[in-house]
Design brief:
Number of strands: 0
Shape: globular
Keywords: Membrane, Transmembrane, Transmembrane helix
Radius of gyration: 18 Å
Strand content: under 5%
Mean pLDDT: 85
Structural class: mainly alpha
Number of domains: 1
């Protein structure tokens, strides 16, 4: 079982792991550097990290899905295609969650938020939109099996959430709706991937229509 998971981690590609973790590392460094100038600059650094991590999550999802170009060959393995892709997306989810924990911990240590309780609230503030943007990326990728439209859709949803939705509604509602919509889109994408597994030989071309 351990060997299977290590194989899936390798198959995810470096971008799926590096993007969220490197983004979190840069954010933690920025929060630490800004904290020397007072809580105000540190708060801005935390806000930037909170907004940026979901976008990196979407990019990581696109990277994982776009690496697998031959679902017909993957369907010939003993493990069902949806299970394989769920494992790979779980790697992304783990990296994004680790990044969010690192940012929240740095924010609390730097005094950039109002104590540990406020730092905990940074987690849904990052993870809910990350699920929304990642779900959008997965759903959009299955429409055309192409990184370009998936990336465009993810960026558009990220901009809409960051610039309009999140500032316009209470935090709890914004997070709940983002997580719910993201989960629905992710499930829809998973169903589409399952359909790819059932396509007849040569049928995958229709997905690029």
């Amino acid at each position: 079982m351990k060997e299977i998971h290590l194989h899936e981690i390798r198959r995810c590609g470096p971008a799926a792991i590096v993007l969220p973790l490197l983004g979190a590392f840069v954010a933690v460094a920025a929060v630490g550097a800004a904290s020397t100038r007072g809580p105000g600059p540190a708060g801005w650094a935390v806000a930037g990290a909170t907004a940026g991590l979901p976008l990196l999550a979407g990019a990581a999802v696109v990277s994982v899905l776009d690496r697998e170009r031959s679902f017909e060959l993957l369907a010939g393995t003993p493990v069902p295609v949806p299970t394989t892709m769920r494992r790979r997306l779980a790697v992304v989810a783990g990296c994004v969650t680790a990044g969010a924990l690192a940012v929240a911990s740095a924010a609390s240590a730097a005094g950039a938020v109002g104590g540990p309780a406020a730092a905990v609230l940074l987690l849904p503030a990052m993870l809910a939109p990350a699920l929304l943007v990642g779900g959008t990326a997965a759903w959009a990728w299955t429409r055309r099996r192409s990184a370009a439209p998936a990336s465009g859709a993810a960026v558009a949803v990220w901009l809409g959430h960051t610039a309009w939705w999140a500032p316009s509604v209470p935090d709890g509602l914004a997070w709940a709706v983002a997580a719910a919509v993201g989960a629905v889109l992710l499930r829809s994408g998973a169903r589409a991937i399952a359909d790819m597994e059932r396509l007849p030989p040569g049928g995958a071309g229709s997905w690029r229509g």
